[in-house]
Amino acid sequence: MKHKLHANLLTKPVKVLLVGAGGTGSQMMVKLVNLHKAMVALGHPHGFRVTVVDPDVVSHANIGRQNFYPGDVGSFKADVLVTRANMALENTVWESNIGKLDTRSSLQDFDIVIGAVDNRAARLGILRGLEGTMSGVRYWLDTGNRKADGQVILGEVSSRSKVGEDKLRLPHVAELYPEMIDPAQEDKDDTPSCSLAEALEKQSLFINPTIADFAGNILWQLFTKGEIEAHGVFVNLERMMVMPMKVDPDVWTRFGVIRDGRRHRIVRESVKSKREAKAKLAVATA
Question: Which NCBIfam families match (predicted)?
């Protein structure tokens, strides 16, 4: 089975939001520049229009693992990456946004949101922002990793105002792994690394560029072939293993994805537990 690119993206500027400009996001920016130039060369009338959102500044610990240089230290990551991209582009201006997404963020203006984030709250913000659009279906390309393994998943998110559900809509990361949008399950050890050596204790040197390569390749196939047979991939560098996620409803079912023609809201496990506890208390005190 194959998924076909949204037809309107072949004739209009493709508006992309890159959320996160760190380990994977800074590598992903290079892929987006290359993809834009390749798409235009191959006949796309407009290519990408990219906005990068990230609140952080470049630190010395970022040099060597993220796509930054000593002269960038102290500058906002999003500004650095966008300035660099605009120098490589012709007749195209990309933008930066110094800030964070939350569940109130409007993502109405974007066709594709690429998540290169390392926390559940940011993923929740992406999901609710895409669900809160006025109409239609938009792509969510999620990238994530641990020390030496990670995943890339291209999904589609429909507006909550949409009646019914397409049974072949690509499931997004929150449908496959609901815990990924639950801040209550966040790892509390999120202290920034003080040096490159300390950062490398937490993550393999090449996991971020590897994840960015696979994410870029999914977009490359989608925009050059107009269709894809796999909408995701799981990578483990220690075991040297790569496993694709096929466009296949049977595969989605094994992850617990429900496709019955109705819209199903993704509810965080912590919220579900609180509701169940409240319901039990109400019954006990009735």
Answer: PRTRC_ThiF
